[in-house]
Amino acid sequence: MITIAIDGHSSCGKSTMAKDLARSIGYIYIDSGAMYRCCTLYALDNGLIAPDGTIDTATLEQRMPEIHVSFSLNAATGRPDTYLNGECVEERIRTMEVSSHVSPIAALPFVRAAMTAQQQQMGRQGGIVMDGRDIGTAVFPDAELKIFVTASDEIRAQRRYDELQSKGQHPDFNEVLENLRERDRIDSTRAVAPLRQAEDAVVLDNSHLTIAQQNQWLLDRYHECIERHS
Ligand code: CDP
User: Fold this and answer.
1) Is the pTM higher than 0.85?
2) Which of 16, 17, 36, 130 to mutate to test ligand 1, by most ligand atoms within 8 A of the CB atom?
3) What is the CATH number of the domain that holds 177?
């Protein structure tokens, strides 16, 4: 069993393709972004982010050992739900409020160190598909298959807008667009494990692909990789 790392820009459909691939090849899917979103939710719930966005980093660092993230398969959806300290937070971590604070939290070196250690532990036996920003560069630099996904800003914003609408949220389109641009900016320029394409990653621009087409593209890359390694 190999390790598959899928990195790329915000809201480009990485998690949809990663989940679908994991399901069709019987691998475990891990959403590393959900883990950073959990740290952000914890900080918001515990008053560690001031209204002006300032983070109480000293307290958050002290409390990091209290943040336990886990995933459990939801039988109804066939997909994993995210749990923070035993509570299902799958919905709460996907709000615009969390999205607007997550990148500064994910840039903190002590947050990255804690999450990276957990991710490496989860993937130590291979047989996983993990998506995020630094999976092929920092978490699993030896992954056998690395994919880097992108799409145009407007298309990504439209996809995220539609997704939030379908969950009963009513976001403003421009706010969604600005949020993903701002997250890409912070994620790409941070000092620790910035978002960048690994040299050995295969690039996919899925701006004009349907979900079925992108799934097939990924499955083809998987089969090629398995052949190369057999
Ligand atoms: O689904 P979406 O692309 O909007 O974001 P996500 O994958 O849920 O990730 C949320 C945020 O977590 C990103 O904007 C990054 O700031 C951070 N993140 C990270 O720093 N490293 C990762 N491996 C995954 C996410």
Assistant:
1) yes
2) 36
3) 3.40.50.300
